[in-house]
Amino acid sequence: MTDAGDDQPPDTDRPSREELDQQVRDHYGTWRDQPKGLACVVIAAFGILTTVAFGLAILAFVLAVR
User: Fold this and answer.
1) Which stretches are transmembrane (predicted)?
2) Contact of 15 with 23, CB cutoff 8 Å
3) pTM here?
């Protein structure tokens, strides 16, 4: 028992790897397209906390010298 589609190679009705990759990129984007808000918040928090810590260290040093 064979059906009409048996004479074709099995890959002819499936999309190619490139087409599948393009569909995924169109739907999800790439890692470069993802939101960067969390990274910005982390970097900003690090900068602010580092500045505050540096200021407190200078203040503690000045008060200790007095």
Assistant:
1) 41-65
2) yes
3) 0.46
